[in-house]
């Protein structure tokens, strides 16, 4: 077994996160434990908790990396270069593709719950807010007389619908086959929501 002096704190952190992500990819969120991560990297659980506060901290760090990858995927469409309706459809389709390609890590972002007496740290909330900011950016040119609060609420409502389709599709509860069918449902949801939002 490796000794603590064999790796720096940052190296241990990266080793642990990589090992934990591998476990989640292979076994899902329910398969993750501090004991498994420690065993994978050849250290004790006690050493693991010298790098992370607790298992919640470890999971939040994994989820943050997932959110960063999702954000990178969703920034590929450029809001200023296409019609805002097409931009929002592309955002939704990018979200669906990401979840389909990496279902376990994507699902863990939403499955993990902190204890009732704990709240998400500000740095993590900022990563979540980035996603909604892109949706708000797409809605802004279509807002007309809507207030900024309306746009904010609309971004949550619209993305809640996209997320719902995603969950139902990944759990095989939609009665549709293949990513293409799910993409069509997503486009239908977004375009029809936008018709109501803009009054078209």
Describe this entry's structure for a reader.
This protein is mainly α and 200 residues long. It folds into two domains: 4-52, Arc Repressor Mutant, subunit A, CATH 1.10.10.60; 67-198, Orthogonal Bundle (Tetracycline Repressor, domain 2), CATH 1.10.357. The chain has nine helices and no strands. The chain has helices at 9-27, 34-41, 45-51, 55-74, 84-101, 103-111, 122-139, 148-170, 178-198. Helix 1 packs across helix 4 (55-74) and helix 1 (9-27) crosses helix 6 (103-111). The protein is elongated, with a radius of gyration of 20 Å. It starts with 8 loop residues before the first helix and ends with a helix. The mean pLDDT is 90.
Secondary structure elements and their pairing?
Elements: H1 9-27, H2 34-41, H3 45-51, H4 55-74, H5 84-101, H6 103-111, H7 122-139, H8 148-170, H9 178-198
Helix pairs in contact: 1-2, 1-4, 1-6, 4-6, 4-7, 5-6, 5-7, 5-8, 5-9, 7-8, 8-9
Task: Give the gist of this structure.
This protein is 72% helix and 0% strand. With 200 residues, it is mainly alpha-helical.
CATH architecture of the largest domain, by name, is Orthogonal Bundle
Distance separating the two termini: 66 Å
Number of helices: 9
The biggest beta sheet, please? none
Strand residues, percent: under 5%
Number of domains: 2
Low-confidence stretches: none
CATH homologous superfamily descriptor of the largest domain: Tetracycline Repressor, domain 2
Give the helix level as a range of percent. over 70%
Specify the CATH class of the largest domain: Mainly Alpha
Which structural class do the helices and strands define? mainly alpha
Evaluate the radius of gyration: 20 Å
**Mean of all residue-level pLDDT scores:** 90
How many beta-strand runs?
Answer: 0
């Amino acid at each position: 077994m490796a000794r603590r002096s064999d790796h720096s704190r940052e190296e241990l952190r990266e080793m642990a996160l990589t090992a934990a992500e591998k476990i989640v990819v292979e076994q899902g969120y329910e398969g993750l434990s501090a004991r498994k991560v420690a065993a994978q990297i050849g250290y004790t659980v006690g050493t693991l908790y010298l790098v992370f506060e607790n298992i919640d901290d470890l999971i939040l760090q994994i989820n943050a990396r997932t959110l960063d990858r999702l954000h990178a995927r969703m920034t590929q469409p450029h809001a200023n270069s296409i019609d805002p309706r097409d931009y929002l459809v592309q955002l939704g389709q990018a979200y669906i593709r990401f979840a389909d390609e990496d279902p376990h890590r994507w699902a863990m972002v939403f499955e993990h719950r902190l204890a009732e007496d704990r709240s998400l740290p500000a740095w993590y909330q900022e990563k979540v807010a980035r996603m909604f900011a892109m949706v708000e950016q797409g809605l802004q040119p279509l807002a007309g007389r809507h207030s900024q609060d309306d746009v904010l609420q609309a971004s949550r409502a619209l993305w809640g619908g996209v997320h719902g389709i995603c969950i139902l599709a990944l759990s095989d509860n939609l009665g549709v086959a293949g990513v293409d069918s799910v993409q069509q449902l997503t486009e239908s949801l977004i375009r029809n929501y936008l018709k109501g939002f803009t009054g078209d």
